[in-house]
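User: I've been trying to design a sequence by hand for this structure and keep getting stuck. Would you show me what you'd pick, starting by listing the structure so we're on the same page?

Assistant: Good idea, let's start from the same input. This is the structure you sent:
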C-alpha cells in the first residue's frame, strides 16, 4: 500500500477544514479516495516490549494540552522503550490543525496528537492515520480486554481514527457535612434519582444560603443527560439515538425529563437560578464553597478538593433510573498523524496507554481503568488518591461508564443542546424552543452525513 501524502498546500487545506464539519459547509472530499499508509505487519513492523535491541534514538512530537501533567507517564514509557523520547508540543490555545500544518511546513512533522472534537474533520483532511491495521498486529491490543464497544467510539466509515488516551470519569460529589447538619445519612451506591431530589430538598436552607445542588451548568449537562438514559428514553448521552444519527431531545419523554430537572429550581428551590445565584454572590456555583450538597466532579477537581475543601466530602455514582444506572465519562482521543515519520514508535506510544503500568498511573490521577483486568481493578483499593473515600462508587462509575457523545457526530458544534438547556433550567427560556431547534439540527446532521459518504 502507498504512503499517504499531505501535499505542500496542507496549511491552507487544514484551515479550510476547521469549521467545515461544524455545519458551516456540507462539501468535502470522500475518505474512500485517499491513499493509506503501510499497515503494521507490511513494511512497518510494530515492535512490542522486549524486542528493542540496538535501536536508533527516536523523538516523538506529541501535541497535547496537558503541559507538565504527563511527565511521569512519559518517563514510564521511556523506561519501557528506552530508545524513544516524548517531546510535548503545547497547544497554548492554538487550533491543533494549525499546529500540525506549521510543523509539517517546517519539515518537522508531529507524530501524535490529542483531539478535543471533530475527529471526522481530521479524517476528511487526511491528517490522521487509520489505526485498524496497527491494532490488528499489536500484541498489547490483542491481549487486552476492553469494555464493550470501547474501540468503536472513535470509528467512522469503518476507520479507527483514534484510541482513548484517557477515560475521564465523573461522579456525584457529596458534601457530607451538609448532609450531617440536616440529619441525612450518606446515600448508598444504588441510590435513585428520586433519592437525589428528596435529599436535595431536605438539606436546602435558603436562610443560611445553603442549597441541595450546585448551580453549575455542569450538573445539567452531565446529570440530565444521564437520567434520560437511565429512564430508557435515550440510547446515548446528549440525548442521541442508538446509531448517533439523530437527537431525541424533542421527544415528549425527554421533554418531561427536562421539566423534572427544571423543577429543582422552579418548584423545589434546591438549586438556584442564574439570577438568584448572582444576587447571592454566585456562592452556589462552586462546590468547594461548602454551600451545596451535590455537584458533578471529575478527576480535574480532586487535587483542589483534597487540598482546600473546608468540609468532609465524598463521591457517589450517578443515581439509578427506571431501567439502568449509567455513568458519565469522557474519552480523550489520541490519534497518530498521517505525516509522522515515526509511525512505529508513534503506535507504541498509543498502545502503551493500555499496559498495566500506564493504567495504574492513570488511576492514581483519578481516571478510570480502560482495561478489564482483575489486577488493575484491584489497584483502585491501593490508589492514594482514593484513600478514605467511597472506592466502591469509583469502581461502579468505571463499570457503568457511558461515553459522552459527539466525537464522530457530523455537525456536532451546531447542536445547541447545552446552551439551550442551560437557558431553560437556569434562566427563563421557553422549554418549547427545544422542538424547532432539535428538528433543524437533525435535518442538518443527516445532510452533512450524506455528503461524506
Amino acid at each position: 500500500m502507498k504512503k499517504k501524502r499531505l501535499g505542500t498546500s496542507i496549511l491552507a487545506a487544514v484551515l479550510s477544514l476547521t469549521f467545515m464539519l461544524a455545519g458551516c459547509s456540507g462539501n468535502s472530499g470522500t475518505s474512500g479516495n485517499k491513499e493509506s499508509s503501510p499497515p503494521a505487519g507490511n513494511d512497518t513492523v510494530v515492535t512490542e516490549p522486549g524486542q528493542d535491541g540496538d535501536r536508533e534514538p527516536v523523538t516523538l512530537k506529541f501535541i497535547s494540552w496537558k503541559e507538565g501533567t504527563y511527565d511521569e507517564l512519559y518517563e514510564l514509557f521511556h523506561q519501557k522503550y528506552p530508545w524513544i523520547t516524548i517531546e510535548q508540543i503545547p497547544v497554548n490555545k492554538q487550533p491543533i490543525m494549525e499546529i500540525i500544518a506549521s510543523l509539517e511546513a517546517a519539515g518537522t512533522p508531529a507524530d501524535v496528537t490529542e483531539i478535543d472534537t471533530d475527529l471526522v474533520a481530521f479524517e476528511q483532511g487526511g491528517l490522521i492515520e487509520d489505526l485498524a491495521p496497527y491494532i490488528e498486529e499489536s500484541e498489547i491490543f490483542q491481549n487486552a480486554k476492553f469494555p464493550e464497544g470501547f474501540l468503536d467510539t472513535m470509528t467512522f466509515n469503518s476507520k479507527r481514527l483514534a484510541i482513548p488516551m484517557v477515560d475521564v470519569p465523573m461522579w456525584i460529589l457529596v458534601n457530607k457535612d451538609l448532609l450531617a447538619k440536616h440529619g441525612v445519612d450518606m446515600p448508598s451506591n444504588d441510590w435513585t434519582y428520586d433519592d437525589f431530589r428528596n435529599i436535595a430538598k431536605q438539606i436546602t436552607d435558603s436562610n443560611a444560603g445553603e442549597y441541595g445542588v450546585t448551580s453549575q451548568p455542569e450538573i445539567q449537562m452531565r446529570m440530565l443527560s444521564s437520567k434520560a438514559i437511565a429512564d430508557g428514553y435515550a440510547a446515548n448521552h446528549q440525548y442521541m439515538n442508538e446509531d448517533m444519527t439523530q437527537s431525541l431531545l424533542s421527544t415528549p419523554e425527554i421533554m418531561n425529563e427536562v421539566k423534572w430537572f427544571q423543577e429543582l429550581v422552579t418548584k423545589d428551590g434546591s438549586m438556584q437560578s442564574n439570577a438568584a445565584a448572582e444576587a447571592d454572590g454566585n456562592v452556589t456555583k462552586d462546590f468547594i464553597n461548602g454551600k451545596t450538597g451535590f455537584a458533578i466532579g471529575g478527576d480535574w477537581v480532586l487535587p483542589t478538593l483534597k487540598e482546600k475543601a473546608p468540609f468532609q466530602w465524598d463521591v457517589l455514582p450517578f443515581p439509578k433510573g427506571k431501567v439502568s444506572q449509567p455513568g458519565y465519562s469522557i474519552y480523550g482521543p489520541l490519534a497518530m498523524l498521517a505525516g509522522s515519520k515515526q509511525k512505529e514508535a508513534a503506535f507504541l506510544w498509543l498502545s502503551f496507554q493500555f499496559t498495566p503500568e500506564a493504567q495504574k498511573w492513570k488511576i492514581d490521577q483519578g481516571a478510570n481503568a480502560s482495561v478489564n483486568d482483575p489486577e488493575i481493578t484491584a489497584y483502585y483499593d491501593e490508589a492514594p488518591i482514593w484513600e478514605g473515600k467511597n472506592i466502591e462508587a469509583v469502581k461502579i462509575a468505571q463499570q457503568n461508564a457511558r461515553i459522552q457523545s459527539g466525537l464522530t457526530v457530523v455537525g456536532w458544534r451546531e447542536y445547541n443542546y447545552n446552551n439551550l438547556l442551560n437557558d431553560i433550567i437556569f434562566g427563563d427560556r421557553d422549554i418549547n424552543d427545544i422542538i424547532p431547534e432539535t428538528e433543524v439540527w437533525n435535518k442538518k446532521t443527516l445532510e452533512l452525513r450524506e455528503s461524506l459518504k
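That's my pick for every position. To get oriented when you compare it with your attempt: The domain at 10-168+330-399 is CATH 3.40.190.10 (D-Maltodextrin-Binding Protein; domain 2). Confidence is low (pLDDT under 50) at residues 1-47.
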